[in-house]
Amino acid sequence: MKEFRFLLTFILVTNAALNIFLSGCAKEDSFIEKTLPPATSTVSKETSTTKADYQIREKDVLFIKVYPGQEFGEGLEAEVNSQGEINIPLLNKVKLGGLTMVEAENLIAQKLDQSYIVNPSVSIRMKEYDVRTVVILGEVKKPGAYDFPKSGRLTIMQAVAIAGGFTDIAAIDKVKLIRKISGVQKTYEINVKNIVNGKQDDVEVQPNDLITVPETFF
């Protein structure tokens, strides 16, 4: 009888622990985005996500084109100073720090339209980012924070390579990409196996992203 009670207690405790574990997993999964992050197709020099969400900062180098606008020629480069300003023809100093590139385009177009050019078309792309980092943690051989390339282009596979590659116990089908979009933190699960096998395009990383690689459970 005692053995039966012990066995029953063991089963109940084990079942309770399993339920807690599974509910924890379900809770974690509920915070994972169901779709991949924007701009996960073939990496380009500039993505719609970057234009919509990236905020211009000191030491960023912008390439600006204005049409019509002879003063701007084929386009000009402008570096953002410590006050968040750039110097451009006709307008002299314009403060763009803290704005997205779309907002900056609209601001410059508005200022030019007020006094100089009727209904101008303004295009801005990022030529060089200020030095920022991407953090890679978990089952990579050299976890840590790494400088983001000046070109502003980095993918999941490139980031993992910078961190020395995966360890032997990395769960490469459950890599997490954590990113803030418009002030909201979002978590994406990336199956790197699909990238390696050519079933999915590599995923572009943005400055200040966090990549975590969990341990696989056998």
Describe this structure in words.
The chain has 5 helices and 10 strands, in the order ααββββαβββαββαβ. It has 2 domains: 32-45 and 131-213, Roll (Outer membrane lipoprotein wza fold like), CATH 3.10.560.10; 58-128, 2-Layer Sandwich (wza like fold). It has 218 residues and is an alpha+beta fold. Residues 134-183 form the Soluble ligand binding domain. Keywords: Signal. InterPro entries: Poly_export (IPR049712), Poly_export_N (IPR003715), Soluble_ligand-bd (IPR019554).
Concise structural overview:
With 218 residues, the chain is α+β, with helices and mostly antiparallel strands. It has helices at 2-29, 48-53, 101-115, 156-162, 192-196, and strands at 61-67, 76-79, 85-88, 92-95, 121-128, 133-138, 144-147, 175-181, 184-190, 210-213.
Give the tally of β-strands. Answer: 10
Helix content: 25-40%
Q: Strands across the major sheet, in which order? A: 7-6-10-8-9
Q: What's the CATH topology name of the largest domain? A: Outer membrane lipoprotein wza fold like
The CATH superfamily label of the largest domain reads Outer membrane lipoprotein wza domain like
Domains, number: 2
User: What is the first-to-last residue Cα distance?
Assistant: 36 Å
Query: Hey, roughly how much beta strand do the residues contain?
Result: 25-35%
Query: Class of the largest domain in CATH?
Result: Alpha Beta
Largest sheet: 5 strands, mixed
Give the CA-based shape.
Answer: elongated
> Number of helix segments?
5
Radius of gyration: 24 Å
Which structural class is indicated by helix and strand composition? alpha+beta
- Regions with pLDDT < 50 over 5+ consecutive residues? 4-30, 39-49
Average pLDDT, to the nearest integer?
78
State the CATH architecture of the largest domain: Roll
User: Order of SSEs, N→C?
Assistant: HHEEEEHEEEHEEHE
